[in-house]
Each structure stands twice: as structure tokens, then as C-alpha cells.
Amino acid sequence: MKKITAIIKPFKLEDVREALSQIGITGVTVTEVKGFGRQKGHTELYRGAEYVVDFLPKTKLEILVNDEQCDDCIDAIIGAANTGKIGDGKIFVEPVERVIRIRTSEEGPEAI
């Protein structure tokens, strides 16, 4: 099993959710986060004063998939989240050693 973590632009969340749903991925954990990479924030004007916003709003998705679904999941995220502009985000893939559903104590792929 793999854990896929994707950091995307917030306005792309619904597009990514729909793309994942089309390939049969039904479980996603979503967190609103802030951060920056090469984008390095931006300058805003508030009541006539200019200030720098270092951390930009992003959306973090965490998805558990079987090994066979991993590449399809990554392709779906890239296809739906890509705008071609800086700040589109990143995808991280990690192995998952063990998964347990609390309600039934099921383990492994059945617990996803």
C-alpha cells in the first residue's frame, strides 16, 4: 500500500476530487495548509500599506491506495491540478506498513 500526499492550489480541489472519483478512489483526507516553495509568496495592499504574504494557502490531500492504483492516482491528480503555472504543488508517495480500520479491526487492503 502507498500513502499519496498532494499539495495543490485550493481552487483545484473539486477538480482533483472528481478525477479521483472517476478512477474509483473514494477516501481522501483534506487539510487546509499554508506554505511556499519557489512561488515565495506575494505582496498585497491593505488600507494603503503594502505587506508581504510569505505563506500562501494550499490544500493538502492524503490518500491511501493499493500499489496497483498508485500510478493512476498520481496521473489523475496531475491531470486535474495542473495549471501550468508556478505553485501548482507537489506529490509525495510513501510506503504504508499497516492499515487498521478501527470499527471492524480489519487490516490491510480491506481497511482502506
Features:
single chain; 112 residues; alpha+beta; 4-stranded antiparallel beta sheet; two-stranded antiparallel ribbon; 2 helices
What does this structure look like?
The chain is α+β, with helices and mostly antiparallel strands and 112 residues long. The protein is 20% helix and 37% strand. It is built from 2 helices and 6 strands; from the N terminus they run βαββββαβ. The protein has helices at residues 13-22, 70-81, and strands at 2-8, 29-35, 42-46, 49-53, 56-65, 89-95. The strands form 2 sheets. It has a 4-stranded antiparallel β-sheet with strand order 2-5-1-6, covered by helices on one side. A two-stranded antiparallel ribbon has the order 3-4. Strand 3 (42-46) and strand 4 (49-53) form a beta hairpin. Helix 1 (13-22) runs antiparallel to helix 2 (70-81). The chain is elongated. The mean pLDDT is 90.
Distance between the termini: 9 Å
Please report the total strand number as a whole number.
6
Please tally the helical runs, counting DSSP H or I stretches of 4 or more residues.
Answer: 2
Q: What is the mean pLDDT?
A: 90
The topology string of helices and strands comes to EHEEEEHE
